[in-house]
Amino acid sequence: MGAAANLELPFSEPDSESVICLEPESGGARAIEDENFPFEALSVIAEMESWRKEINRPTTHIHKWWAQRLGTVFRAMTLGAFAPTGTDIFDLFYKPVRISYGTVFDPFMGSGTTLAEVTKVGARAIGRDINPVAHLLVKCALSIHDRKAIFSTFKAIERDVAEQLKAYYRTTLADGSSADVLYYFWVKVADCPSCESTVDLFSSAIFARHAYSKKFPQAQAVCPHCGGINEVHIESKEACCHSCCNTFDPSSGPAKGANATCPKCGHTFAIAKTVRAKGTPPEHRMYAKLVLTAGGEKIYLKATEEDFALYESAQRVLATRVNPYPIVAIKPGYNTNQVLGYSYNYWHEMFNARQLLCLSILADRIRVITDPLLRELFTCLFSGALEFNNMFASYKGEGTGAVRHMFSHHILKPERVPLEANLWGTSKSSGSFSTMFEGRIRRALDYADRPFELRRTKDGKGSEKVFDLSESIGSNVAENYTAFENGKQIYLSCGDSGATDLADKCVDAVLTDPPFFDNVHYSQLADFFHVWQRHILGEAETRIKDTTRSDFEVQNADQGDFTARLAAVWKEAHRVLKDDGLLAFTYHHSRSEGWRSVLQALMDAGFGITAAHPIKAEMSVAKPKQQAKEPIDIDIILVCRKRSRLVTHHWNGDLWAAVVPVANSQARRLQEMARKLSRNDVRVIVMAQLLRQLSHAVSTQDALLALDAATGDVDDLIEEIHKSQPHFHKQQGE
């Protein structure tokens, strides 16, 4: 649920002439450990960022990564980790702050959110991730780039291959004029097991609708009799085809759920089972296209013989190319078994022949870029375009970005009505190489040159950008720790964060966002990108293997393995952290096992929790969140110190007296900002405060026994806090 429109937030005017310097101090509490840390006000700002993260923090959104955290949160965490206790962090948030002598380590750097925020305040940053895709993304995002060289390289690529690619997305209109094809529409087909007729796996004849269909109810439907394209009302149950005059129901189709019914013989069959029986990936049929006329008009049309011939010519040309694409088998796994079940056995099978041809041409051109950093940057852009140019992408419709990328559900979901986009693209394209250059690379460069923060306007009705608070983003990245010790600002590495080359007690703070104990395995999904990055950049360094999977990944659905691997990283963090330094990380989970694992891993590594603050989490419009019954909208910031610096405690019936008041207070503070909390939101708050107290127990065993015994009390407190919420009117994002 979004924050209310007119909130009474503190308001601070930036003072660019007075730079505030924070330095690491020996001992003493930090502002992030204060009970009055302004998480509720910061959550409002984080919410504003979350609606368009790719615009509000573009530097770390030049490529897909999963669970990308909010820069607002990590800026506040960075300031709070270095500012002394009693500092007004919300006021400091809008001041030009520099932490010139501080060093921060992120062992799960992901898309680089922590590192970008750290460098914006002038601190030194060390980032490590076990996944090569993440490593490439962050290196491209945080390196110093020659803007002129980037734009001249893009122009050179455009000059060399754009027309060649666009030629495969052109069609002739009825008046004889030529038009660009923005998108080709395809449908999966299956042979009826009974009569062997080819069945289109449409669940509805409507294949295109407006994103705001209540306001714009016109939709496009394909006639099941002749394939003609018809404009229909989105709620219509009967339509007459303009081409063949037959009537049909636009809302229905042969496919319903997991089954399909053959229109010819009436036999109903299981789709997945029928596809698997063939042993090859499902076949597709092209049936429509959206063209862009010379006058700028968009028109939906039926696919013609010319379109089929053009596609067949692409197939023939592809067959003549040498090593045109990576041929890498998809390995079994929780997040890949679904596509393996549809007989997609290789990553390249997720693309059609024309996509493979055009990707091959573009990849070959990028490979010959001589400057290594530019070659990596354009490979990163190419890799990002893969997400929108495959046969798992689909059509979102008019009124929004037209292409729904393949990871919108965070899984590899075979798409029954895939969309083939124009790879190079036009000015009206979505998800194309050229438009993503403008929308991702150019925007990221602009932000890196002059970062900004978001702030609620004085009238409380909108947001505004606040500039001139931060240093520009960009550094000569160190490739080893020795180079970092010799003065470089950023050191990035790829590998197991449970074993680094960092010196003992060399960092002032460890700020991060660890993977969840769950079933979304980033490496299984990231292989989709990795095989192409390896195809262009070669098989050395971080791309020796054809997969990003590793035995040392923390992310794991097995509780024991997750705990052990997370503990190994926290132990390494304990080693490299100064004795008076802080470990602070964001986390949430809906299951008790996830919290038990975190507590055990922290205590086994020698850490205890000194503070826990709820804060706005991730993306407000994420599909998995929208589909959850009790969605989690908040993370918890867990602030930790070495247990050797803490006083341990025997809990003798006084545990809940320490937990309940703080949990109640934090929930109330969020509710007073008009933020409705789900039961799982409340669970995050309660569990964090429980872990905070238990982490001061004399031993890990004592803490875990107390945690296991607390289940009933936890559920009772969650229900009490949830039921005590005031009534809320619906807000944006609810």
Describe this structure in words.
With 734 residues, the chain is of the alpha+beta class. It has 2 domains: 20-144 and 443-520 and 555-723, 3-Layer(aba) Sandwich (Rossmann fold), CATH 3.40.50.150; 166-203 and 253-349 and 393-431, no CATH class. The chain has 22 helices and 27 strands. The strands form 8 sheets. The chain has a 7-stranded mixed beta sheet, sandwiched between helices. Strands 5, 6, 7, 16, 17 and 20 form a 6-stranded antiparallel beta sheet that branches. A 3-stranded antiparallel beta sheet has the order 8-9-10, with no helix packed on it. The radius of gyration is 27 Å and the shape is globular. The termini are close together.
Short account of what is shown:
With 734 residues, this protein is of the alpha+beta class. The chain is 36% helix and 18% strand.
Provide keyphrases for this structure:
seven-stranded mixed beta sheet, alpha+beta, 2 domains, 734 residues, 36% helix, six-stranded antiparallel beta sheet, disordered N terminus, Rossmann fold, globular, single chain
Question: What is the topological layout?
Answer:
Elements: E1 20-21, H1 39-51, H2 53-56, H3 71-82, H4 89-93, E2 97-98, E3 103-106, H5 113-120, E4 124-129, H6 132-142, H7 147-166, E5 170-172, E6 178-191, E7 198-200, E8 206-209, E9 218-222, E10 229-233, E11 239-240, E12 247-248, E13 255-256, E14 259-261, E15 268-270, H8 271-278, E16 283-292, E17 298-302, H9 305-320, H10 337-340, H11 353-367, H12 372-386, E18 394-395, E19 403-404, E20 419-421, H13 433-449, E21 452-456, E22 463-467, H14 481-485, E23 490-494, E24 507-512, H15 522-537, H16 559-576, E25 577-587, H17 592-604, E26 607-616, H18 623-627, E27 634-642, H19 655-671, H20 679-694, H21 700-709, H22 711-723
